[in-house]
Structures are given as structure tokens and as C-alpha cells.
Amino acid sequence: MSWIEKLYQTYENNPGNIANPNDAVPLLPLFHSTQNAQLHVVLDSEGNLVDASVVTKDDAPTIIPATEGSAGRAGAKIAPHALFDTLQYVAGDYLEYGGNPNKKKNESGFEPYIQALQGWVENSGNRKLQSVFTYLKKGHLIKDLIEKTVLVAGNNGMLAEEWTEPTDAPPIFKVIKQSNKKGQFEAFVRFSVEIPGDNPSELWKDSKLRESWGSYYATLQSKSDLCMVTGEMTNVASNHPKNIRYPGDGAKLVSSNDTEGFTYLGRFTTDAEACCIGIEVTQKAHSALRWLIERQGRRDGDQAVVAWAVSGAEVPDPQADTFSFLFGREQASTPPKTGYTAQEVGAALSKKIAGYAAKLKSADEVLVFGLDSATPGRMAISYYRELTGSEFLERIEAWHTGCCWQQYFGKDRVFYGAPAPRDIAETAFGTWREGKMYVDEKLRRATVERLLPCIVDGALIPRDLMESCVRRASSRNGIENWGWEKALGIACALFRYHHKERSYSMALDRELRSRDYLYGRLLALAEHLEERALYVGGEKRSTSAEKLMQRFADRPYSTWRILETGLTPYKVRLNSRRRGFLNAVQQEIDSVCVLFETDNFTSDKRLSGEFLLGYHCQRAALKPVVGQDAPDEADETINSED
Q1: Most buried of 275, 334, 552, 582 (most Cβ within 10 A)?
Q2: 171, 202, 220: which is the final residue of a domain?
Q3: Residue 634 falls within a domain, yes or no?
Q4: Which own/partner pairs from 266-272 qualify as long-range (CB within 8 Å, at least 24 positions apart)?
């Protein structure tokens, strides 16, 4: 139960963020929830209708007072919210206008709603609340909204299910469609009461009304027991909140309402014997989790991952690639300039980590939380870690420096660092289609879960995942060049991280005599030579090295003989026009070949991902220095550019 205790503490440590209007999903006041409203009803102090309108999509999120039962209601269960609710509850003439014919059990919740509201009105004595109660008790809300042309009646006088006229649809049908509702019957209503000198008129923004509801609802609790989180006797929850990952999310982390199944029967007599949580604890903990996911978490379908400090200090996102970590998710980058090195990125990382460390104390508790659900009603904690602030920052820095390679995510996003788990999943298991990499959502989420221990715990990259990325980068066919470059950088980073003990350098290591590394260098040199010959001849096509890269990885010796033989006509062309360049490349090829042991060179054994490191490093060494003037035909440098 430590996770719910940490979330409860997080809520208690952030009182200034409660109901913050700047948050897309605010930290909710106690016994409150959020809903998207579609209708806004304005009343005066005497309970008379002043105006009514349709709420736009951008203004729809509304903080509403809610009961334990209403916050977790589902299906046909009648459980009214305390004040704002759908027409089924707030409209006394709901059934008179047809109700919702799409429901199997078409019934009104007005009576339990108005009775509950009356109890709150009598307890609080609030004038605004009294105005809403006075108006709704008259029982003609839908009639008034039709007269105000906010709701639309059909030819039979009932609420129209859809708009069938050729003219433009009324606003209510547009927002209902945006909210993924069916018909006007499910429209959610919120209220304003205009009383001179009593601001704000919007009841969902009134802090006094929120406090009034919290105090009143606490008096209605009668079920007391030992809270297993705080260890105190308190009012305990029998129904826990939902809408955790996003509005409309019906999956729950804690649920014990299955009295007829086998959720707890056979182990316990009652649900309270299995787990007993205080109502305030569960409300605050779930509100904190909902707020954290929206504020600093990442969602991918039903999967949500969030890292946070219980103290409220800012922490880095463990799923960000190095560029996003250093510069933010939305900031554009520029291509690397002269002197841009991995060492510079390392220095920038150290400064960034130091900035977090200045706010996050070494002993502060940091949690990494992963959520996922296999069914619409139940949610599971798929990943959970508790670390100190210093441990978390050390592991984040170790990931970005250890799983580091030059990444090419497009012309404007070239950087040295670690890729994001999502990009790794797409490279390992994706299918290139229409200029983009597509991957099954379940497979991507499962891959992200497998990578979290590598980032947070320092575990090795799973071998099958690394090998999948290597296979992807070994084949350039059927994929655009930028997509292949991205796959190559990711594969090199993963292979380097998986073999930490080898301490691979990101610069060309001319002393490394590994067979796979040397064969990678040969492939890059053959490609470079043919590219120059094609350029000189005015041809634009792929080189043989690019086409045969996959075959080269599987059978390097026999494929190298094919490549070397195929270079003969290109050598003839270069000999007449770029003799200095040809000699320089040939000398480099010879210097690589003499580093092989004879048996290793003539072996056709499949190459490991190490050949990609040699290929990438040799290719990078062959590139001209940025800013170097274009050479003339007599230039003999191996990395000259025409």
C-alpha cells in the first residue's frame, strides 16, 4: 500500500495547486471530480432563469462536487452528483420529453438528486445553492432550454435524437458530437447564479461552495474502520475514484464491489477484510495521481507512466530522449556545427542534472509509476519503483550517457544521446509504411514497460530487443534514408549499452581489431568509394554496399568479394579524374584488411551489431569537416567533398 501513501503525501505537499485554473487537469479539492459540461444555465438570486447557452469544447472541463458513489458510477446505476449533473438528474421533466430512448432502462434520477441537494442547501444556507434548488424544484428545465433554443425538440415534441435537416446543425449537436455523446439526452449541465456583490457567479469556481461541500459531505460518512494506509480509525471508502488516466476512463486501481464473483470471496468474508482505505486518503491519492499523469506523465493509449517527487520538486522524464531532456519536447534544434561533440552533450547533461539536484534533495523520495489495463474496468500497476532523489538522477544520467550515440531524427533533430523508449519500440518492431514507422500499440506498450527497468534500474537492454534493432538497421531496402539513419543510431546506442563492459568509443577506433568492427569499416569505405564515383559520373542511385548491406551482415566474406569485384569499374573512373582520392581510400581499405586475422577474415560467420558501430564510426570519419571549402580535382584527402 506504499504507493497510495506516497500519493496521499504528494497531495498534502501541494496545497497551492488545488483547483489551479492553469492546470488542464487540476489537483481536485476533497470530494470533487471533473466532467465536461455541454450546457450552462444562468439564474438570478430568486431562482429564475436568466440565460442558457451551449458550452464550447475549450471551456467544457468543470470541477464538480461529487459523492463517493457518483464519482465511481457506471452503467445504469443511479448515483447523482451533488450539484452539476446530466439532464437525467437535474431535469424534473426528463421523462416528459422522452428521456434517453437508447438506454435499456430509461429512468430519471431527479428525485434522489433533488433530495440530496436539499440536504446540502439546508446545511449550508448558501444563497446561490438555494437559487439552484428553487429553480430545479419547479421541474421544467428541459422546457425552458427548448424555449431558449438551446435544446431542440423533434416533430413529436420530444428531444430530438439527431439533426436531420439540411441546414447547419444547432450548437448542441456540435458539442455533443465533440464529446462523443449520443443525442442531447446525456448533456451535462452546470450553473451560474448572478447576485450583485457575490462573485464569482460561476458556481464551479466558487471556493466557498467547495469548502461547504467538503464539510457537509464529511458529516454524512458513518462507516468507520482502520485505514490501512494511515493506521488510524477514520471514515473508510466503499467506492474508489475512476477517471484516472483521462476523462471517461472507467478502469479502477482499487475496487471491491464484486460481491458475486471471486474477487475476494474464498479468501475473505467481506471486502473490508481484504483492504480498508480512508475515504479522504483514497480521494486525495487518486486526485494526485490524475494530476501528475496530466502534468508530467506520458500516456500511450491505456498505458500511462509518470515519475514524480513526493516533495513536489521537479524531476526529469525517464522516457524522454536526450534532446527532449536537454531542450524540451517542442523546441526545434539545428544541425550540429563545428565542435559539436558527445563531450559537449555530456557537459550539458551534467549541468541539467545539477539543476534538478539543486531543487531535489538527495533524500527526497522519487517514484516511477506505470499503469495499464487489459479490461475497461480494471487497472494494474505495471511498474513501480521508489528511489531517493540522488539515485534517480544518477540513473537518468547513466542512461543518457551510457545508451548514447549520434541520433538522426530528421535534418533539424540531430543529437548525441539516448533515444526514447517509444522510438526504440518502433525501430525494433515497426513496419515502414507511407513514410512512417507503424507498430502495434500493444507491442509498443509492452516494449516501453520492458525498457523502464533499463532506464530506472540500470538493467541491460533485453538481447532480443537489441537484436531486432540491429536487424532493422542492417537493411536499407524499403525504407526512406532518414528512417534508416534513425534506426542506425538507435541500434548502435542499444548495442553499446548492452555491452557496457567493452567501453565502445563513439569516435573511430583505429586500434580495435574486432572482426565485426573491421568488416563494418570496410563496408563504409566501399560505400564511400562508389558514392564518389557515381557523383563524378553524374549518376544518382544507391550503391552496391547499400543494397547488399543485409547480405553483408549475414555472410560478410563472400559478400565483400562481390563488393570488391564490383568496385573495379568505379576505380577506373576515379583513376582518371580523382586519382588522389582513389589512392587515399585504397590505402585505408588496405590498412583495415591487414588488421584482420586470416581465419577471421575468411569466415562467413554472421556479424553482430558491432559491425554497425564500425560502419557508423568509419562513415563519420570520412565526412568532410563542416565549413571546409570544396576541393578541386587535385585534392587527395579521403574525406573531400565535391
Answers
A1: 552
A2: 220
A3: no
A4: 271/238, 272/225, 272/236
